[in-house]
Design goal:
about 120 residues; Arc Repressor Mutant, subunit A
């Protein structure tokens, strides 16, 4: 069974969302994961490989900072390449979402109901 559109969309925008979060302030992985979990229902285990990949790609830099509770935390901040990538992806995202909205905006509720009825009849 193919993945649902929501899963595919989440996979496609997680890096973009991380860059957007880091554009506001430096953060550590667990904090980023928590924010993404609340916003797009992303699993916590997804963030660590993503952050390693973003670091390898030069999009983020890291530094250690003492924690009030426990060992030092590894913080992430945007690199210059990360800022450039965010700006580029933001422009692409806005163009893409505007195009998609233009297409789906043409679908009215009657057409949507007809599509659902056709799918129901196909399943029967």
């Amino acid at each position: 069974m193919p993945e649902g559109i929501e899963i595919q969309l989440k996979k496609g925008v997680l890096g973009f969302c991380v860059l957007a979060l880091l554009s506001h302030r430096d953060s550590y992985a667990y904090e980023i994961a928590s924010k993404l979990s609340h916003a797009v229902d992303m699993g916590e285990g997804t963030i660590y490989p993503l952050m390693r990949r973003m670091q390898s790609d030069g999009l983020v830099a890291t530094y250690l900072e003492e924690s009030p509770s426990g060992p030092p935390r590894k913080y992430y901040r945007l690199s210059d390449a990360g800022r450039e990538t965010l700006a580029s992806q933001l422009a692409e995202w806005r163009d893409f979402t505007a195009s998609v909205e233009g297409l789906i905006g043409e679908v009215d509720l009657a057409n949507s109901a007809n599509l659902q009825n056709a799918e129901t009849n196909d399943d029967a």
